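User: quick one, fold this
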Amino acid sequence: DVKWILEEPPSTEFSCYGKIRYRHEGALCKVIVQKGEIFCEFLKPQMAITPGQALVLYEDDRLLGGGWIEEVID
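Assistant:
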């Protein structure tokens, strides 16, 4: 379940920065929006991503939205 901050949520595919921890600087990722869910692929491997963590999406300093990680695929 994704919560968008944007007035008009994205409807397809886009790139942004994803943060998975409070102190995580964020990493470039590709996001695919499909039926109210998102699939996020980081361009560089990230350590210790775990279901139940939050994923927060940013465009530079602008918050786009976020949700809870349900599944991690290696």
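User: anything notable?
Assistant: Strands lie at 3-4, 13-19, 27-34, 37-42, 54-59, 62-68.
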